[in-house]
């Protein structure tokens, strides 16, 4: 599937940055400089998005998390019992 390229991005870089980018492109085996830049930028963008999504996968998960941590719910019997066991084992006697 070939996507038609309709958008254009223009950036200005220092001479030093461009030299580094060109050297990396040559070493990478990418045939074109534009192709190299697009590939690297896409990889980094996907990595950033993936890392963010790992932290909180969705708005629903975020709501569940914050409601659980900061909500007004009372602890259930199992949690109360676990806390008592912990206190009895680890408090100074």
Automatic annotation (TrEMBL):
<dbReference type="Pfam" id="PF08681">
    <property type="entry name" value="TacA1"/>
</dbReference>
<dbReference type="InterPro" id="IPR010985">
    <property type="entry name" value="Ribbon_hlx_hlx"/>
</dbReference>
<comment type="similarity">
    <text>Belongs to the TacA antitoxin family.</text>
</comment>
<keyword id="KW-1277">Toxin-antitoxin system</keyword>
<protein>
    <submittedName>
        <fullName>DUF1778 domain-containing protein</fullName>
    </submittedName>
</protein>
<dbReference type="InterPro" id="IPR014795">
    <property type="entry name" value="TacA_1-like"/>
</dbReference>
């Amino acid at each position: 599937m070939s996507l038609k390229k309709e958008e254009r991005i223009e950036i200005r870089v220092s001479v030093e940055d461009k030299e580094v980018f060109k050297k990396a492109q040559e070493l990478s085996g990418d045939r074109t400089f534009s192709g190299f830049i697009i590939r690297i930028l896409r990889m980094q963008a996907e990595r950033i998005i993936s890392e963010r999504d790992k932290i909180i996968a969705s708005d629903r998960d975020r709501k569940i998390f914050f409601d659980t941590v900061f909500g007004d719910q009372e602890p259930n019997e199992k949690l109360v019992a676990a806390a008592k066991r912990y206190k009895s084992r680890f408090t100074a006697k």
